[in-house]
Amino acid sequence: MPEGKGVEITIQGLLNTYGLNFPMSSEGYDAMVAVFDQTIYDSASLSLDDNQMVIQVRILEIEGITPQFSGGPRRELQNIDSNSFQCTIVKQQQCCERDPPQGSDNPAQFCESLGCNINDCRRIRVDIIAEQLSRQGRNRKLQSLSEVDELYTAITESITQQINSGAFTIRLKENASRCGDSCANLFSGVTVMPNPVFAPPTDISVHTAKPTRRPTRKPAKEPIITYPTVFPTLFPTRNPPVLICCLKPALQDTISYSLPNVEAHALTDALSNTECK
User: How would you label 127-138 residue by residue, b for 16+ Cβ within 10 Å and e otherwise?
Assistant: First the structure.
């Protein structure tokens, strides 16, 4: 996060997809992850304010696919034909909810009765890390709570609107087309189901402004000028009248220039009253 006050949160999300083809290599899997990553990032950032930002998207799991490329038990990779005209988008959603109506068969048989295949339903688990910088002039504690809510709502509502309108699926296929034919084929029959699920924000951290390295210097106070109450002797004590008479003109000029008005007048008056022979 840039220097300054703000909050950072993590949002855990779950997206339901239907018709995602199985990658035949680790390169294909990496491309699939990159396409989901970019599409979620784009959709999450679409409605953010200038002080809000998505930092990172992490694809944690693509159901039934990620274990094949993460060092876990492997099974034979196979594609499932999902291009059945009988399995409409509405039926895909009913199938992938894995919640058949009461009295129906198990989820797999329920999907089959719809003309769909439950193996084509793949859930995508994702973490979205985002931040929001603070606005000035508000109570810091209340502001942090408000910022978390604002950021969470902006991101989850934006993604939900994009998915429910079908724009997310279109963007997903557009991003897939940019990474070549083999990558595009992975998403050729995919549909992202409406109403994604998001958990409450986690890993909430509040950032405060970093102190400046050098403290601000206080302005120096103006020096206070003081004058001694007793003036030093300006001439020797021996034969003062003679010396005063010799130096009288110069002393008058010096006293008038160097001393405050009150003291200067007193001394010049004394000199004026001195008789010189």
Answer: bbebbbbbeeee
Show the tokens assigned to 263: 């003291």
- 73 vs 50: CA distance, rounded Å: 45
What single-letter amino acid sits at 76? E
Angle at 97 between CA 91 and CA 98, to 5 degrees: 105
Of 102, 107, 103, which Cα lies nearest the Cα of 117? 107
Question: pLDDT tens string for the chain (277 positions)?
Answer: 445 578 899 999 999 999 999 998 888 999 999 999 999 999 999 999 998 999 999 999 998 888 777 654 443 333 444 444 578 888 888 888 877 777 677 888 888 888 888 888 899 999 999 999 876 655 555 466 788 899 999 999 999 999 999 999 999 999 999 988 888 999 999 999 999 999 999 988 887 655 444 444 444 455 554 545 444 544 444 455 544 555 556 555 555 555 556 555 665 666 566 555 5
CA gap 202, 127 in Å, rounded: 10
Instruction: Tell me the three state secondary structure of residue 40.
Output: helix
- Dmax over CA atoms of the chain, in Å, equals 140
And the tokens for 20? 């995602």
Token pair listed for 174: 């557009």
Tell me the C-alpha distance between 14 and 92, whole Å: 16
Q: What are phi and psi of 143, to 5 degrees?
A: -65, -40
Element (H, E) at 239: none
